[in-house]
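U., I forgot to send this yesterday:
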Amino acid sequence: MITSEIKDELRRIQAELKKPFPANLHEVRELPGSSKKWVFLRWQTIRERLDEIAPDWMSDYSEIQYIGNDAICRCGIAILGVRKEAIASVPISLQSKAGNEMTRGSAADRLAAEGLKNAAECWGVGRYLDDQPFTISYLWERMSELDDAMCGQVRLLSEQYKLRLKAAAVEPDIKKSPELLSKPVRHNLLPQASQQPKQQQLPARKEVTKPSVVHPQDSRVRQIREIFNYPRDLVVEWLQFQDADRPSQLEPKIVNELVKTICLTWAADKFEHSNHAANSYQKHIVDAVANGADEVAAIQGWINHIANQKVEATIK
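Result:
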């Protein structure tokens, strides 16, 4: 029989287990057989949460059964004598359209990880991930904690789920919004019009239209955005986070971060890990530009390099 003390402790433990994880521990992957992406947590991250909140937790697994191409088992997690169980199933083999094997590790290892995650979810660990719109909104509000590649993934997810996410609210700037000012009161301190001497009206001065000059920073971002077909709205939102309307209002090093975000967003699904994309960007673009290469030419070369790598991988 469970005592009231154990019940209270279980409630406390489960409340802690249910809390969202730090933003930077989340990752994104493609759902099998679909182009859609999904925010997830690694099973090792979930294991760390169990170790932290309930150090005495225990797990057990049933015998693995094989049905067709699927490996299936049951996994249970016990905390303070209370056991919760879930079923796990993983494909033994999963091939891409090109015929390449997409699974990593043995079916037994993947099944053990999946079983642990499913049983932990019964305790509330990572349960919020089932609500992807909530998860994306949670990450959106914590962009400052994410690396550039993950920020790009969150932006893509917000488009996939058609979420209307806004930047942090900003107090209206009266200097930029003169319509917010009340009309000034005109005090009649001058004599009446009939008593005022008539002033000779001067001919209206003709305004000379100056040719518009595009700032190099604005031109740079626009050109790179168009190369990757990156949505203009996302650039506008990024600038809003910097309290700016145009790249030319920012320091060059800040604009460099915007360019990096655009590039890594495009490359996010072309590398197995986000740090590989960042390293490739550093080598083929940042280092190349530092050595005197034209940035646009370096970007085009980077795109071709990645495309050639994918072709070689397909041939192999």
